[in-house]
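Figure S7 source data.
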Amino acid sequence: MTPPDEDSLIRKDVSALPVPPNLADYEQARASFRWPAAARALSGLPGGSGLNIAHEAVDRHAQGARATHVALRWLGKDGSQRDFSYAGLAAWSARFANVLDALGVQRGDRVFLLAGRIPELYMAVLGALKHRCVVSPLFAAFGPEPIFTRMSIGAAAVLVTTTGLYRRKVSALRERLPQLRHVLVVREEAGEPLPVGTLDLAALLEDAAPQYRIGPTRPDDPALLHFTSGTTGKPKGAIHVHEAVVAHHATGALALDFHPEDVFWCTADPGWVTGTSYGIVAPLVHGLTLIVDEADFDAERWYDILGREAVSVWYTAPTAVRMMMKGGAASARNRTFARLRFIASVGEPLNPQAVTWGLEAFGLPIHDNWWQTETGGIMIANFAAMDIRPGSMGKPLPGIEAALVRRTADGGVALLAEPGVEGELALRRGWPSMFRGYLGEEERYLKCFAGEWYLTGDLARRDAEGYYWFVGRADDVIKSSGHLIGPFEVESAFMAHPAVAEAGVIGKPDPVAGEIVKAFVALKPGHAPGEALRRDLLAFVRKRLGTAVAPKEIDFVAALPKTRSGKILRRLLKARELGLPEGDLSTLEPGA
Ligand code: ATP
Ligand code: MG
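Tokens for the predicted adenosine-5'-triphosphate complex:
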């Protein structure tokens, strides 16, 4: 089955790109890429004492020519701005590492972060990595129970948070978290009293020395603990090691086309893996200027930042793009984005309409890429110099071998080599940012592998040119009258209709067909639900998809339920439709 947009192509003229791309020739880059050589592009700790993410991200630049270059420009909600040079960030993170040391925190202890995008969060992540602790950033909007679950699974020894978040969400949990030894808080109001049982982070940093010598760090020492988004069920705690920085560095160059003078903005919160791998580590390892916006999504604010801060590379997510699309392209076209040259997106399939909307709004297509918490870094991408097939997630990165497989009864896999065949996306194990376990769930971890292959739980297909097309999560795929239907394809057909802002598609059990396709549709401003529009939509998608794949039912909704990382929660749409238990909703965005 060929989706309607598979034949369209956005051609790239390499000689017309504003800077020469790092990956100019895909096949050649694949043929010559080797992970050991990629590792040698990093410095390593002085004296050959290993590999540490924070050394690569800040200290080596602070000791070199980039010392005074702006590493992080922080934009406050209230319009304030703070710049940190590489030397400054190295000193602040050193202070934080010394604070941990003075408190008796040990190598391998877990340091959790529960805060908005405030400067102290970035100091703490880097400082904790210097002290060889395992860092786990949580999303500040989590309620007490999701916080408790993650901190107890992770046996948090230290928590960095704010006074308000502590009072509202953590203080009542304290007795249930016996391993939690220190809570370091940032005051929300100047001069406010500290909650009982917490320490004043500002005062501790002030008293700490701004130098810290990172101890020997093995490449396979644990560094980060990231909980998955929980789109399919209960979130899993994926463990990543210091060596992941090799992949952060390589993928920053290849998939995001980082160049030394770039100003890079990753809109993801560090509570999700994207906000750490690419919202902190990768751009700093490259010595770039990283933009951090404390505020939540607001289309006008975002356009302002892209223009005013002269952002050159922008990494965002389909939900954000769809929200910007809702307002139309005019807002963007009335402005200038003088330095913007590369836009990428991750987290969910990017509808073809969103790819081409980028052209309308910014004069640049949006480059979809695919990865997971478990993979630690970008695995499949649309590259700056490669033609785009809108709706495709691109091709595997150099150093990454992808395949489509079918699981066999004996626990192995059969490779599906024919173009166009749908199968489970698998990756040959061994890249540096591959997760090394699900904390406390060894069996679940082992189940992700069949021999040399890591099985992703996502279904995809590859076309004859080697582009990968996302079909759906294995759990979301619909089986209707002998057809396997990926919800994304149906949702994209809806997205092509001018009245549709978003669509979520599920399979609903049916005695005859097995399952029928049901769609939930949210409309753009200015369009009202009604029978006429329903019929119009049905006819519109039937024409694009054919009757076997087109939905039989459409419900209009004000908004779709999403995770806080912006992914459509199809399992919740389905549970609600069928009146079944709603399952783990710890990552549900409120109001949906
Ligand atoms: P859980 O595993 O707990 O259900 P999750 O899979 O949503 O949560 P993440 O690791 O944050 O948690 O998300 C990775 C998943 O997001 C991928 O496996 C895939 O299903 C989806 N995804 C990410 N990028 C893309 C993309 N470009 N196109 C399609 N799907 C994507
Ligand atoms: Mg997952």
